[in-house]
Zinc-binding dehydrogenase (Nocardia aurantiaca), 326 residues
Amino acid sequence: MIVGARQPSSTTMRAARHEHWGSPLEIADVARPEVGAGEVRIAVQATSVNPIDMHTGRNSGYEQSMRLPCIPGWDVAGVVDAVGYGVTRHAVGDRLYGLAWFPYPAGTYAEYMTVPAYHLVPMPKSASFAEAACLPMAALTAWQMLDAVETRAGQHVLVSGASGGVGHVAVQLAVARGATVTALARPEHHATLHELGAHTCVDYTDPDAVTDIGKVDAALDLVGFDFGASLFDRVMPGGAIALSTAWSIKGYRDAAAERGIRAASCLVEPDPVALAAIAELVDAGAVRVVVGAEFDLSDAADAQRWVEHRRGFGKAAIMVNTPERA
């Protein structure tokens, strides 16, 4: 049975939290949550950092749905510690992963958390806790963006930000659907992207190389801003483009429509059915999440800085109760 790295009492736990909006993450002893009806309590083994995690601790609009002190995080991989009344799908000891509560507060930067049982599904059997924790938000975002542009076999799909958490998974999921994939990333990441299945890799800082891509059936815009707008010229009329940030959509659809392109914004939604399918793809070897760095819970602030400054390929995992990190 998995045990916690540190068990000061049966009623408290460690968590990384913001005391005030804009304050740094600090480790604190807080009350361990009690499991409710229809919920499971998870002994968190790992979580991962997503860009939205940083916004929850700042004056970025998310504080309207958050309460102080604020424990960030939505990705979780862990072991069922307790089950609430009426829960039959999971049992104590099960290894589960998922996107918890999103977009409402979840608090996965902690040793324990409670979540509706249906939000979680069994982890990929071949994945470590770090790998499983790095999948939910990134993989679901990629999955739903590919759905939005109606990706199918034989299409040519362009993925911007391909070395990031969402991007490198999107490359693999598109390939798994039978698409030809062109990945935009810095040259130092091209070899890894080819290993993950990208057919062509292009340096996004080279305008001529980007132009030479020609026209594609669909594009996933994981960058936004001016660079994202430039992707319109790479999509053929009748094609589609998906934007990963719903709050950047103003004017986006109109600009796409002027070029005869369909545009969609994708703010990720929990989808346990898709997560179960993604777990099958992981176990089949069709999808591999790259854990670019691992941090202890006490170094959660460093993990966020790693993501914010884009210091590597893939995702950053925060290890919590995992024994080998004790």
In short: The domain at 12-135+289-325 is CATH 3.90.180.10 (Quinone Oxidoreductase; Chain A, domain 1). Confidence is low (pLDDT under 50) at residues 1-7. The chain has two domains: 12-135+289-325, 138-265. The first strand starts at residue 12 and ends at 17.
